């Protein structure tokens, strides 16, 4: 998912000389930036392009560098002439930026197709969803007491506080770090949630260990491929995404990314960024971006650069930051590998205790953190385009299943899950941070006008979290460029906003 760039020789030098004249007065006389670069065309990068266009206006040139496919971790695979989500799949109804994108782009919500979920411990189903909501509530109460009520109240309280970000951003306020942003929403409570484990926080809340093991752990496994030791704030984001009122985009979630690029009138450059370095032109401070395309190497100068791709070692080829004094802060940590296998075949219902597939009622199977279980989840999935007459395949029919696992499934594992299959497509994702692999949250500001978007997903990884980070960076870059420091890192914002109203 990361991308790179590099420079030619004489042609590049000539180009840089020609460019210098355009930048001599760049920031000195308060003029707007001429050129902005964004590295990465996932949801974070494309949303950043959209928000930067809103704030800096129509004159600035916005270049978006992407070595792979627009959409990044929002992607689809094709099976039998139908497309299916292989990356980020669901969006919460309270994700207001994503809702706004879809509205402005003229996209539609995909029609939902009902399906029941169960939790499997390697031997049997320990929790089964039924067609009756009240019966499900009674079963939860009977097995776990009031743990699920305590959990629901905790998640709702966190979501209510997090929703403040939309008011702050609507009034133009920005934050110079992820810590400042979280503190403005939930004070030290939110910051502490990034440092304490989910299991520790829930036990303190009065949630039972049994509920954590049988309900919370399976949700963490399907959403982040990790266990209940992940930070509490990440866990809360994940649990919010496990509630009802979820949706997706008709035609595929990646359409949001390509649509935002067009809406922003950004220039897509299919290239790999290899290096970024500071460059002085008269009294102006610029950044030189080096890149490689399939046919050539090149270099460009920019007033502002936003890196919207992970900078941790081992996540793609990486970007070299050269000539910065002092050197830029080191971005530590690693990304968690989740394997998504899209299988066209017949589910082996006998493995789950249902010899007759006609009696198997579940569309999704989550798993507990049990030694020896080789998959995190298995689900019957629907295409990204759902016709009016579409129906979900029954277990006795060949269907399309998405299986999440920690490593690629071997033949024996596939034979365990499926009676037979026609095809298997594997997407090996460095899908989200490996939480706990670093201390603290990555910086947002790397240099004067050099920003890093992906630090936000170390607080919580989701499409909306990237969109919130994109809006924050656009506001931050705008205010710092125009020296409107009173709009950055302001305290007691709820009181200020009420006073403004």
TrEMBL record:
One of its GO terms (molecular function) is prenylcysteine oxidase activity. Its cofactor is FAD. It holds the Pfam family Prenylcys_lyase. GO terms for biological process: prenylated protein catabolic process; prenylcysteine catabolic process. InterPro entries: FAD/NAD-bd_sf, Prenylcys_lyase, Prenylcysteine_Oxase1. It comes from Paramormyrops kingsleyae. Residues 1-21 form the signal peptide. Belongs to the prenylcysteine oxidase family. Keywords: FAD, Flavoprotein, Glycoprotein, Oxidoreductase, Signal. The keyword tRNA processing does not apply. This is Prenylcysteine oxidase 1 like. Residues 127-490 form the Prenylcysteine lyase domain.
């Amino acid at each position: 998912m990361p991308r790179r760039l590099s420079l030619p020789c004489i042609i590049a030098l000539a180009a840089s000389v020609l460019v210098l004249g355009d930048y001599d007065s760049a920031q000195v006389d308060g003029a707007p930036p001429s050129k902005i670069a964004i590295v990465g065309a996932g949801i974070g990068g494309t949303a950043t392009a959209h928000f930067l266009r809103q704030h800096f206006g129509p004159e600035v040139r916005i270049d978006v560098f992407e070595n792979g496919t627009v959409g990044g971790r929002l992607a689809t695979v094709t099976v039998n002439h139908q497309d299916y989500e292989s990356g980020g799949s669901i969006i919460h109804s309270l994700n207001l930026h994503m809702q706004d994108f879809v509205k402005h782009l003229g996209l539609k919500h995909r029609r939902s197709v009902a399906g029941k979920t169960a939790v499997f411990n390697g031997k049997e189903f320990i929790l089964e969803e039924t067609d009756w909501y009240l019966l499900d509530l009674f079963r939860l109460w009977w097995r776990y007491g009031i743990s699920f009520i305590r959990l629901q109240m905790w998640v709702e309280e966190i979501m209510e506080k997090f929703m403040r970000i939309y008011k702050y951003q609507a009034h133009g306020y920005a934050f110079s770090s992820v810590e400042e942003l979280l503190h403005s929403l939930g004070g030290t409570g939110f910051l502490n949630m990034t440092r304490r484990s989910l299991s520790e926080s829930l036990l303190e809340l009065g949630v039972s260990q049994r509920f954590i093991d049988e309900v919370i752990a399976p949700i963490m496994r399907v959403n982040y491929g990790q266990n209940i030791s992940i930070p509490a704030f990440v866990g809360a984001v994940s649990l919010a995404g496990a509630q009802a009122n979820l949706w997706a985009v008709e035609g595929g979630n990646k359409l949001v990314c390509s649509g935002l690029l067009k809406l922003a009138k950004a220039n897509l450059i299919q290239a790999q960024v290899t290096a970024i370095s500071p460059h002085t032109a008269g009294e102006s401070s610029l950044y030189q971006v080096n890149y490689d395309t399939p046919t050539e190497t090149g270099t460009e100068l920019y007033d502002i650069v936003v890196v919207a791709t992970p900078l941790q070692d081992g996540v793609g080829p990486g970007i070299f930051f050269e000539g910065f004094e002092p050197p830029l802060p080191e971005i530590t940590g690693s990304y968690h590998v989740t394997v998504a296998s899209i299988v066209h075949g017949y589910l082996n219902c006998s493995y789950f205790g249902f010899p007759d597939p006609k009696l198997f009622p579940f569309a999704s199977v989550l798993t507990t953190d049990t030694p020896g279980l080789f998959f995190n989840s298995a689900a019957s999935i629907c295409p990204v385009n759902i016709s009016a007459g579409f129906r979900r395949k029954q277990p006795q029919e060949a269907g399309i299943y998405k299986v999440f696992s920690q490593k690629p499934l071997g033949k024996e594992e596939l034979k365990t899950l499926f009676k037979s299959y026609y095809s298997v497509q594997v997407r090996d994702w460095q899908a989200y941070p490996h939480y706990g692999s670093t201390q603290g949250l990555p910086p947002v500001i790397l240099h004067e006008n050099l920003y890093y978007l992906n630090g936000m997903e170390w607080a919580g990884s989701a499409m909306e979290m990237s969109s919130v980070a994109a809006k924050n960076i656009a506001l931050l870059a705008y205010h710092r460029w125009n020296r409107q420091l009173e709009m950055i890192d302001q305290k007691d914002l709820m009181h200020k906003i009420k006073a403004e109203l």
